[in-house]
Amino acid sequence: MRKISYYFVNAITIYRVISAPVLFFLIITRQVDLFRWLLALSFFTDAIDGWLARRFKVSSVTGARLDSLGDDLTVLAGAVGLFVFKHDFISQEYLWVAILLILLAIQVIAAFWRYRKMTSFHTWLAKIAAVLQGIFLISAFFLPEPNPALFYLAVAFTSLELLEEIVMVFLLPTWEADVKGIYWALKQRREKR
User: Fold this and answer.
1) Entry pTM
2) Which of 60, 89, 136, 149: disulfide with 154, CB 3.0–4.6 Å?
């Protein structure tokens, strides 16, 4: 049963990785209706795969890496969709988008410099940011106009999450998956001394 659960949970995560090119194809071909439903389904699978992995006790490093990749590709597809389908809104908020991109670039560069790969910390802040990103992006495509309050909330938590991950890259000497946050990273660091 455990092996079946492991494959089932990873299949849900792999769906997000496989659906990303389809989402980009829908953006290129300007099929916004199909794009928004597939994006919503991708965010739904993001919400359930981690819970299912913990519920059936089938968490793994491979699953954490796949989950991070699926998350990043889903958010990237949503962001590119915003640029294409909701360009007026994004052009008004370009400063906040630029700040997020700079923080993301710093986080990715720091991770590759330190670990030679992307992080998969899955912190509490990352989970909150992901929920807010999903709510904002899905609502942006299902409502006539994106909600600025949801956008600013998602930006605030995403910025905090990226800053936290940058700090954690320098706190944790080796790559680790599923670290809850800075407090836990500091605790681990003290215990290893």
Assistant:
1) 0.88
2) 136
